[in-house]
Amino acid sequence: MQWKFCSQMQQYLLLPAILLSLSSCTPVQEDPALPENGMQTDVPAEGSGNEDPENGNQNEGGHENQDEESNENQNEDQNEDQNEDNMMESNTLKLTVNGETFTATLVNNSSTEALKEHLAKQGELEIRMDDYGNMEKVGSLGFSLPRNDRQTTTEPGDLILYQGNSFVIYYDTNSWNFTRLGKVDKVSTREQMLELLGGKGEITVTLSLE
Prior knowledge:
The relative contact order is 0.13. The longest helix has 37 residues, at 53-89. By secondary structure, the protein is an alpha+beta fold. It has 4 helices and 9 strands; from the N terminus they run ααββαββββββαβ. The protein has a domain at 89-208: Cyclophilin. Helices cover 39% and strands 27% of the residues.
């Protein structure tokens, strides 16, 4: 009887120790929303300044391409302006008839300056011409030039502006009040000028500066 009582007392004393041991072994649950160190990780927001370096490089490359295109366009414009200036400085006019080209030397006046400016900006000019008075070929320019009319006696090869809007190539002599534009190079006779013009009849003359 005494032994049973002692055995029961031992069981009662061991029970709290067993419960305490079990409680110390129970795992502690952690908050899954927090990292192990207990601090939240900052997530960069859009537009926070942490751009993708590859995208940044692409944007820089785009700006560089735009700058290069702008520079190329400026260079082209400058080259075109330079070409126009060079053509304006020249007093040589090219005339082409039936595929054959010959040259004339222009005089210096406001009429030839305006003609050169037109050709430099608009390019070559085609003029349909026909004979008149057995001494010239004449055709309309299609626009007007400043007039510098004075009494003039023509010779074969003279280039004349008549009434401000007609282009005339003389192959014989005449005397009238009109504007001298220039003279065909290396021409002094009627025969030489008619040969360059392809003889009598209607022709198309192309004027150019280059």
